[in-house]
Amino acid sequence: MRGDTTQRKLALLFTADEFGEGASYILEVLKDRGIQGAFFLTGNYLRDPANQQVVSQMIEGGHYVGPHSNKHLLYCDWTIRDSLLVTYQEFAEDLEKNYQELAKYGVDRLTARVFMPPYEWYNKQIVRWAEASGIQVVNFTPGLRTAADYTFPEMGTRYVSSDSIFKQVLLAEQERTSGLNGFLMLIHLGTDQRRTDKFYYRLPELIDTLRSMGYAFERADKLVQ
């Protein structure tokens, strides 16, 4: 969930299942800034013909492309986290199908061993099952609100505007002794159309601001080695 806290480095992580309208824009920003991101994609996303070009661009650009489950299953209860909602067989088959879709793009299981669970929600049993398959579970570093970029106004108090997210990142950096060192920062590739305030459009400003503060960007799978 976090890399070396003594190094002024952080990583950008992106996940996608049914929404991914920001992919082309995000890839352009990363290319322009010379940054390699980590993209965790479901089988649902990979199978969609509309996404084939951007997935190929991710791979060609040297970004990490890895699994996010096949069907975006919810592994455990939202309130009782130790309560599993899938069996080992369901977990293993779903993950394997995700890898089968990645293989169609030339992504080898041995080189894509870092796995972001769906909904970024899992428990110790899921980690053990993944480890038994030779897979390393990663998640975003707690303390930032960037993962709330999927919310939209109709959610009421759960909605977090892009401006609020941006300000909270800078505030968290100031308040922590080690700043954002080693942080895995999650941003979604796309959101429900009811959110018109897309946080990924703030990505250039975010990158430039953090770089001006002395941060460098590392690919996530390398940051957590």
Describe this structure in words.
The chain has 225 residues and is of the alpha/beta class. It is 35% helix and 12% strand. It contains 8 helices and 7 strands. Strands 1, 2, 3, 6 and 7 form a 5-stranded parallel beta sheet that branches. A two-stranded parallel sheet has the order 4-5. The longest helix is centred in the middle third of the chain and has 16 residues.
Offer a few descriptive terms:
two-stranded parallel ribbon; 12% strand; alpha/beta; 35% helix; 225 residues; globular; 5-stranded parallel beta sheet
Alpha-carbon distance between the termini?
A: 11 Å
Mean pLDDT: 97
Shape: globular
One letter per element, helices H and strands E, the order comes to EHEHHEHEHEHEHEH
Please tally the β strands and state the result: 7
Task: Please render the helix and strand layout as text.
Layout: E1 9-16, H1 23-33, E2 38-41, H2 43-47, H3 52-60, E3 64-67, H4 88-103, E4 114-115, H5 124-132, E5 136-137, H6 162-175, E6 184-188, H7 203-212, E7 216-217, H8 220-223
Parallel strand pairs: 1-2, 1-6, 1-7, 2-3, 4-5
Summarize the structure.
The protein is an alpha/beta fold and 225 residues long. It has helices at residues 23-33, 43-47, 52-60, 88-103, 124-132, 162-175, 203-212, 220-223; strands spanning 9-16, 38-41, 64-67, 114-115, 136-137, 184-188, 216-217. The chain has eight helices and seven strands.
